[in-house]
């Protein structure tokens, strides 16, 4: 049997996938960036509640995914579910959209690491090293880890993720402690505050903070228990992310006060969380938080690179992309060719941004993740719609079909609303970027290419 026909080694447990998924969502980066912007531009003190609303929609999505997963015996993540429920043309479109958004997220995460690493070393060690150098370093690290067997990356991500979660736990515990200067209230979870101000923008930033959780589905062929392991990891990850984000953001709101947090965010949303650390914890924790902000971006880059590689591997195996992408390393059993391809593509894109002297945060990160937010949420909505179609078509085979159908419909509506929010508020999400404002057109363009490939008979129905 040739290496191209082999399946990856089943080496991932539920905890491994959980860490890969949550690391891709980058909890610390999500709170520092999206959470603070949600407070400033969205619903202010109600931002913690927005995380719970977004989490509820995504939990409904995850439940529908779990109930459909036994019927989709295929690696390659959500595009396989879209194909199963909506047909091969929709599946082809979803596949190519997924490739675009995951590659873009790797680029954005590498730039984000470059920015925060440069900032940390300049402020704390007096080393003025350009973000471009740090971004290159991150791509080298990611390339080496991505080339090898995936459990190595999962273990490293577990350590990095635990540290960034713990630093936020320290802040929350300090704010909530009896001797704290903060006044604990439930104002952030009152419906009148959650749905106040620009609720749509707050909800958009909440949804964007979950980017990466859907990558659990990509690892079904490398999971020890197959879809069952993936399902456990997916639901656990969504619940953890929703609850953790809500509590962490709540503690930051309380740190400044319900009536002052918006003004504090207006001073500089990028430093809101670090100012909370400076106010409530020992200075060493502020330095640690700044360092972990960089490692959070690195962890996300590793996880997203792994996800992109597995998309290319699965599509190469099906003939939608060159077959060589489906080759496995003879010793490591890793999709090394696909990993190298992602490294080359992302390195070229980062180099282009660097040569244009683009701002790593306001241009590279914002534009790539703005595009990714749109693409991923549309992909999730299409997957949820395929669950609706699948449940309806198989209603005679299940006594619980009505409940399953309702869950899928509610998830589809919620994700469709999220997609509309991203489209309507795209400039708020990405800033004014000139030519990059046209980046969203890459999503329909990728979909058209995918439909064309599927029409050529390269993707089975």
UniProtKB/TrEMBL annotation:
Topology versus the membrane: Multi-pass membrane protein
A GO CC term attached to the entry: plasma membrane
Record bears the keyword Transmembrane: yes
InterPro entries assigned to the protein according to its UniProt record, in alphabetical order: AA/rel_permease1 (IPR002293), APC_superfamily (IPR050367)
Keywords of this entry: Cell membrane, Membrane, Transmembrane, Transmembrane helix
Primary localization class, coarse: membrane
GO molecular function per UniProt: transmembrane transporter activity
Transmembrane segments: 12-37, 49-68, 89-117, 129-147, 154-174, 194-213, 234-256, 291-313, 334-355, 367-392, 404-426, 438-455
PANTHER family (UniProt xref): AMINO ACID PERMEASE, AMINO ACID TRANSPORTER-RELATED
Name of the protein this chain belongs to: APC family permease
